Amino acid sequence: MPPAAPPRRERLDRDRVLRAAVALADEAGLAAVSMRGLAQHLGVVPMALYKHVADKDELIGGMVDVVLGGIEPPDPALGWKDAVRERVLAARRAVLRHPWARRAIEASTRRTPVVLGHMDAVAGGLRAGGLSPDLTHHVMHALGNRIWGFSPELFEEPAPAHPPTPEEQEAMAREFAQRFPHVLEIAVAATEGDLGRVGGGCDEQFEFEFALDLLLDGAERLHRAGWTSAARRPVARSSQRP
Amino acid sequence: MPPAAPPRRERLDRDRVLRAAVALADEAGLAAVSMRGLAQHLGVVPMALYKHVADKDELIGGMVDVVLGGIEPPDPALGWKDAVRERVLAARRAVLRHPWARRAIEASTRRTPVVLGHMDAVAGGLRAGGLSPDLTHHVMHALGNRIWGFSPELFEEPAPAHPPTPEEQEAMAREFAQRFPHVLEIAVAATEGDLGRVGGGCDEQFEFEFALDLLLDGAERLHRAGWTSAARRPVARSSQRP
DNA sequence: ACGCTAGGTGTACGGTGTACGCCTGTCAAC
DNA sequence: GTTGACAGGCGTACACCGTACACCTAGCGT
User: Where does the HTH tetR-type domain lie (chains A, B) (predicted)?
Assistant: First the structure.
């Protein structure tokens, strides 16, 4: 009999590894998910993980799968456009539950069955609306990462290293206003919306749905207009004469 | 006198470092741009670089600046929509000159003057068309990374590690067709376009312009319809009744 | 009772970014 | 001239990363 049976934690399996990785990323950020860090979190030696996961890339691919596993399918009674919209927003909800998920999706090059499944579902939703395979393909491209429920984080502030003195801040603001007036303008426009927002922040959910609807409505218009790829352009150019 | 004057390469400066980094990335990929690798490329010890660049993140930010410096401004005679379109496509051309640039832009969290300048120019183009700051803001968000001339690489194949045997391939294809029929369908649609393309590849330039025009045309429609954020939706939902 | 094997261990290698201190060539001011 | 500051390149060192390889061991089917 082994002396005092050291609290033999139950054996690992792939699922336990993945869930632990997700939990670790949730509480300490994606950067904390190193093979060593994760192993320690599981009370195990780093190389043990490689018995369940091929390499780090597959690990984060698996983490993405776990997150995407929580996507609930849309109400089947919905029309095609709303169904696609709902599915994408469901993906968004799943992704937003884990702050690190966007970055992980972007980083992972893997095309897992879960990922393909979601893509297939979205494409199927468009096809169900009668869009041709061709148009569906282009719309999928147009949606881009929005299929996953997020758009690229263009406007995120990286938090200044050293909080500048008021004078510096004043001077920087002045120079900024002079060099980038339009960026300033739209930033201001974003803050004076409904309610007094914190500086620089804007309603990301609204921005997302705005873009999503812009694309889906555009797709619907093209479809109704009988668009085919022969035209090689969504609509006529703005210049009225050819 | 120093013996035989060892071929004293001229002193480094920030610009030389950045250009060397770009050249190195061009010929050996972004992964080859490590502080050590770049230093060796310059015939210098790694730590020497830190006299010209704060850290690696700033280095790649600087590389992005170099690439984005090559964006030529659009013909001032163009209408606002075409001007924005042209500017974005110019950014795309600049980025596509360097295969690593997409990834670098995504990776870099820095908001350099060059980056802000481009954003400001695009926003200014929309404002010049009469769009309100508010609508301009939303459209900028909708454009997302397309401002930089690329959309997320959703459909890129990571090249299978071990080329499978024909039987395996057959079996995989069969299962794929069953599980992801719509993905398969649109992939096929992409290949049987104009000319016989290589498998899986599609005309990325067309996809890009398709999405870009879908968004710009949508923006124009909203603007002409006098859109304000009060509506909180680009257009009426597809269900006709409220 | 035996041996196979799945799974956890230990060590080691080559890579990374970068903090810290030294050393030296250049140049301005005395 | 001589001096002293200082910009810029050098060397060492640290902590961390992913992972290849060999080994050991518990548990199980035969």
Answer: 11-71
